[in-house]
Write the structure tokens for this entry.
Amino acid sequence: MTNTSFFEHITNQFDDVLPFVAYRKPGESHLYGFYQETDVVHYLENFEESGFAFAPFDECQKGILIPETYAIQCEYIATDSSETVQEFILPKEDQTDKEIHISLVQSGIDEILENGLKKVVLSRKRTFPNTLTAPITIFKKLLQTYANAFVYIWYHPKVGLWLGATPETLLSVKNKRVYTMSLAGTQKYTNASNIIWGTKEIEEQQLVTDTIVSRLEPLVQEIIVGTVENHQAGSLLHLKTAISAKFDETKVTLQSIIKALHPTPAVCGLPVDDAKAFILENEHYDRSFYTGFLGELNITRETTRSRTRRNVENLAYRSVKKSTHLFVNLRCMERTAAGTHVYVGGGITAASIPDAEWEETVHKLGTMGKVLF
């Protein structure tokens, strides 16, 4: 399938008001898509299903599946695949929005100091008019701008329309090992060789790493924790630690591992249950699929082994395996009748400064905001 026919297909799905998802994995050049011929809603039940999973922040709400039944793909080369690092200046926000978010952050700091929370991730959304850019055009802009992110457009007429370019893996499963990451701390990318992180960001990153490891330990073996690295996501820089472990698929279900990881401390806080309760009570809006997760679930993929003479003679150099690769739904937007909502947030600790946290969300808004103009 060509690029043109791929985009024509998803455009027709959108025009016909039928569900579809199209996406590209980080650093890859293939576009993948799944679509439905009816508008029935398929819910995630036990994560043994095959298709594209789309799950909300609050695990009490049901996730959605677009089954693997109908699939398309094509090779895609962006005209400019380099990530844009120039800061984009959005139209100035209302002072009231700033005051509301600063007050929310201060409430989070007070909760940490008074009631034992270690961290809470607090978010907000900014709404732009729908007349700015068409959804398929936004998707194309995201593809060209964020080569190292998971870029997607997801649509279901009975659920909603979402787009994003997220830098964070929730988990991937390969050869009986599970791979995940901790991602925390944010600063503007400046192309400087000497990158300095503050105590707040370093401690926040370590908290996230330690928590992920402790939640995985009862389910897996041979946990490997990598070194802390700098991770660029467009015009932003984060701290990242890779984590992997071996697990026995006959004893541990994929659903149990997902439940142990989601929501991660990077999108919720610590302790997770207490932080989540604070978020649901104080953010005063429904995150829906923002800070949920999405991606390939038990997808059938044909892999090619090395073409040794023995393999060629036995016609055994190809194999079919199931693949799962899920991402945290960050750097995303939702298109509704009221407008296009861009979601952003940040991790709050005892060392947080409310005004600085507001500025961080402003910088993060540029990731999605600039593709709207």
